[in-house]
Each structure stands twice: as structure tokens, then as C-alpha cells.
UniProtKB/TrEMBL annotation:
Transmembrane residue ranges: 15-31
Keyword Ligase: no
Pathway note: Porphyrin-containing compound metabolism; protoporphyrin-IX biosynthesis; coproporphyrinogen-III from 5-aminolevulinate: step 3/4
Protein function: Catalyzes cyclization of the linear tetrapyrrole, hydroxymethylbilane, to the macrocyclic uroporphyrinogen III, the branch point for the various sub-pathways leading to the wide diversity of porphyrins. Porphyrins act as cofactors for a multitude of enzymes that perform a variety of processes within the cell such as methionine synthesis (vitamin B12) or oxygen transport (heme).
CDD domains: HemD
GO BP term (any one): heme B biosynthetic process
PANTHER family: UROPORPHYRINOGEN III SYNTHASE, UROPORPHYRINOGEN-III SYNTHASE
Any one Gene Ontology cellular component term annotated for this protein: cytosol
A GO MF term: uroporphyrinogen-III synthase activity
Enzyme Commission code: 4.2.1.75
Official protein name in the record: Uroporphyrinogen-III synthase
Length: 311
């Protein structure tokens, strides 16, 4: 065996042993640089070599929520919060509403002495009440309700009620279960006027009545899917194109209306992390067979952001 043969048989093999770790380290560093500078191409690389995407690398947020007539996408507080933190944020309007039973609501409002107070569990319930107030000849109606014990869920609902002149409690509770516990700590002789939508679940009312809190619920708005929902979800599919994304849901009805469309359009759920606002929305996602990545217990954009970012 010549010296050359010895070199190629042993020298090259040993050289390979020394160089292999360096080559592997170089490849990993290159991939990290790609992940920082070119997120658009990463999903396909990750899928092919089996590297798990870290949470902080996922910068796509999709908000499935309703927008009131007084808002647009740009001034939605959730949209602004995630956008300001560097997330690629898309808002898909999920729901439309039709107000109903406004005349009946007006009659009940004028009979304020029959009630302990009003319970608002959504911004839409406040907007329905405003519609009644705008058509009410009794301009003192707000002052007549100020001495009542009125409750709300969430900061947005509280702000809308406050803008109308209502004094409320419970904005910090964040969800129906917590609000029900707060209300049940006291005793009330008269019922509460409970303003709800057509798809509002009965759990809240049942819990109050089990604790001897009387409830007079009135449906003042009908919930329906947004007219452009399927078209917007198709555009979303073309936009994110299997990129890792957080899909954030704000209501069970939002889940019910969108998931069948997502399945119909063959969305790749492997790249989606589902986030729920509140336990009832979480439960609805689970019923569709999805694992919920995070559940925000409060309808608050900062709380939601912190829930997603915490590991």
C-alpha cells in the first residue's frame, strides 16, 4: 500500500471526523439566519427537516371577531396591540347582527322600578340598548337607572355603558362564570334585566337562578355570519399560505361559523395554534377536535398578548 493510499484511507476519514461537526454547526447557523431574515420560506424548510417552530418565531396573528358599526379594523384595540408588537395581524370580521325587540326593551327600561339592575355581557347588548334610548321619549331614563346595580363583562362593554351614563360593576371579571360568582355574593329581591343575543348560551342565567338571583332575559339582537366570511377566509388562505399562525377566537359562534369553512377549503391545521377568549370559546374549539394552545380568561388585549407570549 502506497503512502497515498494510506492518506486517502485514513487521513481523509479522520479529516471527515473533525470536519463533520463544523459542517453541521455551519448549516444550523445558516438556518437560524434564514429564520431571522426570511420567515416566508421557513414553513417549507421546517416541514421537510422536522425542526419545531418556536413560539416566538410565529409572527402571524389572525383575529376572528366582530366589529361594531362605530369601528373599523385600524382602530380595533386587539388589532392595534398585536400590530404594535411586530405581529403580521389580520382581522376577519366573523359576525353580523340584526337588532330586534327594541320596542319591548323600551317598555322594560321605562319600568325600571321592577328591576335590580341591568346585566350587559357584550358590547352589542349596550349598542342595542342605545338604539332603544335614542327612540325613547323619556330622556331621564339613564338617571333613573343610576341607582340600580348594573353589571358588565369586559372593559369595552364597560366603556360603552359608561359613555351612555351607566354606572356598572364587574368589568374585571372577564367572563360569564366569574361575573355570575360576583353577582351571587349579594342578595337581590327584584330580577335583573339581562340583554342577550340569539346565540347566547344559558349557563350564565342558570347559575344565577340556582343562587336565587332572578333573571328577565331579553333577546335584542340576532347573530348571523358575516356576508363576506367565506370570501375573506379564502383570501386569508392565499395570504398566509401555510405559514405558522395564531388563530384567535372571541366567541363560540365565531368558531361555529368559521371552522366548517376552514375544513371545506382544506386548511393545513398543522401550522395553526388556536387561541380562545374565555372558557366557553375554548370548549367550542375542543368540541371541534382542536387542541387549544392558550385561553385568555379576560377579554383584554394586553392580557391576551401576555397569554400568547408566556412560555
Amino acid at each position: 500500500m502506497t503512502a497515498t493510499d494510506v492518506f486517502y484511507r485514513y487521513g481523509v476519514n479522520r479529516l471527515g471526523v473533525y470536519l463533520l461537526p463544523i459542517i453541521i454547526s455551519t448549516v444550523i447557523l445558516k438556518l437560524r439566519k434564514i429564520s431571522e431574515s426570511k420567515m416566508d420560506s421557513l414553513p417549507f424548510i421546517i416541514g421537510s427537516i422536522g425542526i419545531k417552530m418556536n413560539d416566538y418565531e410565529c409572527k402571524q396573528i389572525v383575529l376572528f371577531k366582530s366589529i361594531s358599526e362605530t369601528e373599523n379594523v385600524e382602530n380595533d384595540v386587539y388589532y392595534e396591540t398585536f400590530l404594535s408588537k411586530g405581529f403580521n395581524t389580520i382581522l376577519i370580521p366573523v359576525l353580523d347582527f340584526d337588532f330586534i325587540n327594541i320596542e319591548e326593551l323600551t317598555i322594560k327600561l321605562n319600568n325600571h322600578k321592577n328591576y335590580s339592575g341591568i346585566i350587559f355581557t357584550s358590547p352589542r347588548s349596550v349598542l342595542g340598548l342605545k338604539l332603544s334610548l335614542d327612540n325613547n321619549d323619556n330622556k331621564e331614563i339613564i338617571n333613573q337607572w343610576k341607582n340600580h346595580t348594573n353589571y358588565v363583562i369586559g372593559e369595552k362593554t364597560e366603556k360603552l355603558a359608561k359613555d351612555l351614563g351607566f354606572i356598572t360593576r364587574g368589568k374585571e371579571t372577564g367572563n360569564g362564570d366569574a361575573l355570575a360568582e360576583l353577582i351571587c355574593k349579594k342578595s337581590f329581591e327584584k330580577p335583573f334585566l339581562y340583554l342577550i343575543g340569539s346565540l347566547t348560551q344559558k349557563n350564565f342565567k342558570i347559575k344565577l337562578e340556582k343562587n336565587n338571583i332572578k333573571v328577565d332575559d331579553l333577546v335584542i339582537y340576532k347573530t348571523k355570519p358575516h356576508s363576506d366570511l367565506e370570501e375573506n377566509i379564502l383570501k386569508l388562505k392565499l395570504e398566509i399560505n401555510d405559514k405558522p399562525a395564531y388563530f384567535i377566537y372571541f366567541s363560540p359562534s365565531g368558531v361555529n361559523y368559521t371552522i366548517p369553512i376552514l375544513k371545506k377549503l382544506n386548511y393545513n391545521f398543522e401550522f395553526i395554534k388556536f387561541v380562545a377568549i374565555g372558557p366557553t370559546t375554548e370548549k367550542q374549539l375542543i368540541e371541534f377536535g382542536f387542541k387549544v394552545f392558550k385561553t385568555s380568561l379576560e377579554p383584554n388585549p394586553k392580557y391576551l398578548l401576555d397569554s400568547i407570549l408566556e412560555n
